[in-house]
Amino acid sequence: QAYRMVGTEDVRLFCNGYYAEVIIMNPFTLEIIFSLSSRVNPDWISALYVLKPHTCKDDVVLGLTTTGTVKVWTLEQRDYGPTDNPVYENESKQIRCLNALTMACCSQHQRTVLIVCSKCWQIYDAGDFSALCTVYAPRGVRWLGGEFLAPDRVLIWTDDGKGYLYKLPANSIVENKNFHKQAEDGDVPYLYSLLSVSSNTHLYCSPAIRFYESLQHGKILIRGDSEGAINIWKIPELSPAQLSVIKENDSHKKLAGLSPFVCTSLSKAWESMKPNPVGILNQLDCENVPNIKLTASIYLAGQSRLVIGRQDGSIVIIPATQTVMLQLLHGNHQHYKDWPPHQILVGHNGRVNCLLYPHHMHSRYDKSHLLSGGVDFAICLWDLYAGTLLHRFCVHAGEITQLLVPPNTCANPRILKCICSVASDHSVTLLSLSERKCVVLASRHLFPVVTIKWRPLDDFMIVGCSDATVYVWQMETGIY
After folding, report:
1. InterPro entries from the entry (predicted)?
2. Are residues 370 and 258 in the same domain?
3. What is the pLDDT of residues 30-54, one digit of tens each?
4. Is residue 431 part of a domain?
5. I need a surface site. Which of 172, 185, 297, 439 has the fewest CB within 10 A?
6. Phi and psi for 66 in degrees, rounded to 5?
């Protein structure tokens, strides 16, 4: 969270994560200024909120650990300077809230706190941190975050990109005479509006969602997803009388969704450009042949060449500087038929997924070696200068998704001549470029591989999968 602390003009970043401290950093230099630590039940801080109380001259930091311990730090100005001594909490209390995602305090009166977990969201009294109301997520839905719209209303968003607007019950509203009392029967948070999009496009990950108050549009909710789409909703400002009418009329109706007033995407932006932007390989296009999609690319800085993999399995190598001249600068070179000169490598049966020039990573690799991985389960080793296929590795049972280089500190000299490949069949291999064969085949992963880490001095390759499992392989023996 970015926050301007009392008595200073600079903004500070309050950072929490998979550690027990709250780190306060300078956003421009990323220098750690000081940290907040815990004496009682130290644990990872999962949610954080910084505020300036109306009745206090000091800043207050609210933190919540993964195991449900609320921490309160009161920061005095003497704590703001660089120091090696951590600032410890002033208060600590255990509540029934595990693995919280976000925490927000009502800005109007700062008496109520919204805590959002994946399965439920809750309103707490900031005075004694007693729970006032709880709403559980519908089946198949996970809460992702939330904010106060007003002292009596909250906005909660989900991992499928929808926003839920709730009216709080009387016992959760500070101005109400029934605040902090036992809730009456039927007096529960009321869902009065739903923010959603009409398309049902499958997303690779949860959308990024932010609540923002703008001068022009008021309160808005912004959503960006993995398809490059941006949606913006204007939060409706409803009076208590309008809410009562909605509650009466919608008691027997299905809740209708409110559509965003802005819907755009990267694809729409490209399509709206007139004339269309120039393609890097437009000089190779033929009138009678449909354009071939570009699927992978890598820039060879030392040689000023651009290597591009295409949908049909071909790899095109072109001089980067001359290509830019052709597309952007006028001159006699635009009248040459075969300018700039290019090289085409043909060896894959289908789309080229990834490219690797290992000499970029470390000088121990041959300058002439280029590697490509394709949808045909193969990894091709090329000679850049001769334009020939040196070897074709066929050890995977799925399309190649990544090509990596082991670190230079590997204790085994044999591994230093290898590259690492990852495929869609959940396998990982170490391929020796000098021996032209597979050195290690790690193929017992049950789920897709998402990350590769190394313990080079211990001769370990660590494979992380999408189900959060981790496999540790010994590179010399291929045993895990």
Report:
1. WD40/YVTN_repeat-like_dom_sf, WD40_repeat_CS, WD40_repeat_dom_sf, WD40_rpt, WDR72-like
2. no
3. 888 889 999 988 999 999 999 888 7
4. yes
5. 185
6. -65, -25
- Domain limits at 435? 294-474
Please report the sign of the dihedral spanned by the C-alpha atoms of residue 323, residue 328, residue 331, residue 337: positive
pTM here is 0.69
The beta strand positions in 206-321, using DSSP E, are 208-214, 218-224, 229-234, 257-258, 262-265, 294-300, 305-310, 314-319
Cα 21 off chain centre by: 22
> Whole-angstrom Cα distance, residue 407 to residue 317?
27
C-alpha distance from residue 356 to each of 312, 323, 372, 379, 416 (Å): 18, 21, 6, 10, 16
* Digit-coded pLDDT (tens) for 132-187: 999 999 888 999 999 999 989 999 999 988 999 999 998 888 888 888 888 777 78
Quick one: 77 and 118 in the same domain? yes
Which tokens in the block code for residue 80?
């703001």
State how many domains the chain has: 2
Geometric angle at alpha carbon 339, from 334 and 344, rounded to 5°: 140
456 neighbors 407 (Cβ within 8 angstroms): yes
What is the spatial distance between Cα 231 and Cα 293, in angstroms, rounded to a whole number? Answer: 28
- Whether residue 255 lies inside any domain: the answer is yes
